[in-house]
Design a protein that fits this description.
Oligomer: heterodimer
Strand content of chain B: under 5%
Number of helices of chain A: 2
Shape of chain A: elongated
Distance between the termini of chain B: 43 Å
Strand content of chain A: 15-25%
Strand order of the largest sheet of chain A: 2-1-3
Helix content of chain A: 10-25%
Structural class of chain A: alpha+beta
Number of strands of chain A: 3
Largest interface: A-B, 31 and 36 residues
Order of helices and strands of chain B: HHHHHHHHHHEEHHH
Number of strands of chain B: 2
Helix content of chain B: 55-70%
Largest sheet of chain A: 3 strands, antiparallel
Number of helices of chain B: 13
Largest sheet of chain B: 2 strands, antiparallel
Distance between the termini of chain A: 30 Å
Chain lengths: ~110, ~325
């Protein structure tokens, strides 16, 4: 689903310094699920980032747990090298169960 | 780093495959600026849109209605934040967008330049203004720009409560005393035409439409969206027992749609240019609220700085 968009910090606008730091917000919808990126917000520190995240992203009980991460702390793969970067997995169909032939009549395999 | 032509080809191929463009992808400068303008205007509309309804929080007729209205206005603030967050992925800062609004260089939806004169207006806004906004926003959930589309999904989920609570207010009034019903009708009379204008000028005169359609930012034309909205509200108005103030509104069996009367585009242009009933008041209030909040923002920064110094000295 959603992925963090740390690329935004690479293009600061002229007014960037006047904004509070940017935080990426991840919400665990319920027990048993992973935290998922839901968006971002500005806050002066981690405590207020959490509080703001609760108010902005969980007004309808959308979560049981929230993470906030400084956007500047995220390292991401570059979109320009997307093909070569992910290429090593491209020719390894044998990593998937569908690669293998199963004789007729063999069950539970 | 690939050549621009190759990047442009990749961009077009992504659009052609109906896939989403994400923040770090290469995109034409026009695509970026169009999105910034549209998303910012959308965000500003959510924020300014708190004012007409906020006007009635202290005078809501019951504690229940007050709690609902507070929740709705809080949602509008949240929607503004989702949208600013999406706009910022395009490389523009929040402070810049705020400045552009305050300087009048970016706009917000003209609908919020009309006053909320009675409690029934809160109902009419929920039903018609939020109804029109939903009609507009549902296709935007499939917009080609990922962060905008995702923000729209969240917004649409929350807007349907807004529309229903508005409709319920009008239904209650229109089934109350004759004075209450007259109040509901009066609100409908004032909000019907401006809500039809919310979809923007007719297709033939819409300047940015064709390009936005090609980029799959916009999925349906202004007139198509307006038609959907009219078809939706006619039976809803009947259930309210109220009359839409449009004598030419008739079912067109051939088209399978309702035909509506001519829209006063001169009024639209006049309000858009700043001469609506509340343009000056809305902007004045927004600038003042921002200026009066400056000490809170400064104090929060000072406190964060003090805490980080303390944390270092303890370590």
């Amino acid at each position: 689903m959603s992925t963090p968009d740390p690329g935004r910090v690479a293009r600061p606008g002229p007014g960037e310094r006047r904004d509070w730091p940017l935080w990426e917000v991840f919400v665990r919808a319920r027990r048993g699920l992973s935290h998922v990126h839901v968006g971002s917000l500005h806050a002066p520190d981690a405590t207020l980032a959490l509080r703001n995240a609760r108010d902005v992203y969980t007004r309808r009980q959308e979560g049981v747990s929230v993470w906030v991460v400084p956007a500047s702390a995220i390292t991401a793969s570059s979109p320009d090298e997307k093909d070569p970067f992910f290429a090593p997995a491209g020719d390894k169909a044998y990593r998937h169960p569908t690669f293998y032939d199963v004789p007729d009549g063999v069950r539970q395999l | 780093m690939p050549e621009t032509a190759e990047l442009a080809e990749r961009f077009e191929a992504t659009l052609a495959a109906d896939q989403r463009i994400e923040p770090r992808d290469w995109m034409p400068e026009g695509y970026r600026t169009t999105l910034i303008r549209q998303i910012a205007q959308h965000a500003h509309s959510e924020v300014i849109g708190m004012q007409p309804e906020g006007n009635w929080i202290s005078r809501a007729p019951s504690l229940k209605r007050k709690a609902i209205l507070v929740a709705k206005v809080q949602d509008e603030a949240g929607h503004g934040l989702y949208l600013y967050s999406a706009a910022e992925t395009l490389g523009v800062s929040r402070a810049e967008l705020t400045d552009l609004l305050h300087d009048g260089q970016q706009k917000y939806s003209s609908i919020f330049n009309y006053p909320t004169l009675t409690w029934a207006d809160v109902g009419a806004i929920g039903w018609l203004v939020d109804g029109a906004a939903i009609t507009n926003q549902i296709p935007l959930c499939r917009c080609s720009y990922g962060p905008y589309a995702r923000a729209m999904v969240r917004v649409c989920k929350e807007e349907s409560f807004h529309q229903r609570q508005g409709y319920e207010i009008l239904y209650t009034l229109s089934h109350g005393s004759s004075r209450q019903k007259a109040m509901a009708q009066d609100a409908l009379d004032r909000w019907y035409w401006p809500s039809l204008m919310m979809f923007g000028p007719p297709d033939a005169e819409s300047t940015h439409s064709a390009r936005s359609m090609a980029w799959r930012i916009k999925r349906l034309s202004n007139d198509e969206l307006r038609q959907r909205f009219v078809d939706m509200i006619v039976p809803q108005a009947e259930a309210l027992g109220l009359t839409l103030p449009d004598p030419q509104l008739t079912w067109n069996a051939e088209r399978g749609h309702y035909d509506h009367g001519p829209i006063d585009w001169e009024e639209f242009t006049r309000v858009l240019r700043g001469h609506g009933p509340c343009n000056a008041a809305r902007m004045e209030h927004k600038r003042r609220a921002h200026a009066e909040g400056a000490w809170v923002r400064d104090a929060a920064v000072a406190y964060a700085a003090k805490r980080s110094v303390e944390a270092v000295s303890v370590a």
